[in-house]
Fold these 2 entries.
Entry 1:
Amino acid sequence: MRRNSLIAAMLSVALASFAWGQSNANGIGYFALEVPANVTITIDGDDGDWAWFDPIFTVGPDEMYEIQKAEVLDKSDLDVAIMTAWTGTDRDNRLYGFVRATDDTLVVTSDVFDDGWRDDDLEIITDANASGGPHDGDGESGTRAEGQQFTMHLPVPGIYETPYGGDGSWWLRWQVVEEIHWMDEFAESRVTTNPPGATTGSTNVTVNYEYSIPLWDYASLDGPDNSIRHENEAGQIIRLTYQLNEADNPEDRRTHQLATTGEDGASGNCDVCSEYTLLGADEYDRADGGAGTAVESESWAKIKATFSD
């Protein structure tokens, strides 16, 4: 029953073209896959434990939008592949992501955590219960009670190293109150490069961003015990946006921003965040040959093809 419902939903979305939501850069929304029961993802910046992920649901630049200048970026300048997964309350109830960015020139010069967006870095914007509206809700500026803009930035020893994520790459921004940084303490993150040791000025670099976080329906300044943690379930639609910042040189800093949303503004208001549907483990085809169903993947492949014609 679930498989048939999923296929019907996909087909209706395809027929309606961009009717699902103008906030989705691809016009139809995105999908996060439940981590299989026999898979454990280790946050180490290596995609070896993502071999199961159905590539049909990997998001690339053709399904994203450049929200600063509305320009189409050449893949030789910036290419990206995004995989998003989740676990439910029967496990650790977290959101997982692996983002691979291939950049012609790397720029990581910021020494201010809030200003990492001026460099090459990644923004992850969450609104777990899809309530929309300003991140602060009705609260004071910087509280981020209803939505969050997290960032991942390549750590640079002595220049950019946050206290969070395990490797100094994770930060909740922008201009948030100090008390709400308790959310950062729950994040696991790792940023790696190929070649290893790449830094500002390095060319033809692959940057791997990997993370794991819990989601929150409501975040209180008084900490997690006074907050409402989101419980992930198959079939849910959450608001989740990826924004990849692109800088070509240390002088000009950021020049472009490639996003899963179709317009600027998600960094402060989730009315324009993209949507992710949580698919259960029986609703996709495992790439590593594990148990799965091919019907959904084949249907989704046909739908995606209509948007690339």
Note: The helical segments are 2-16, 294-308.
Entry 2:
Amino acid sequence: MSTEAPRKGSLLGTIKAVGWSFFGVRKNSAYQNDVAKLNPLHIIAVAFVGVIVFVGGLILLVRYVVAP
């Protein structure tokens, strides 16, 4: 039975990691650091919110461009 040390990732660190992942640019060393520190549930939650904001922004942009 292995006991893992609690992950101590910050909210800002999670947002940065997810943002860089959306952008598609991330160093392997930074990725490994994220895997060691960040909580997977926090990453999923921040990514979900990011997707909602991104899609909402696209919808607003399309409505603005197509508006008469």
Note: The chain has one domain: 11-66.
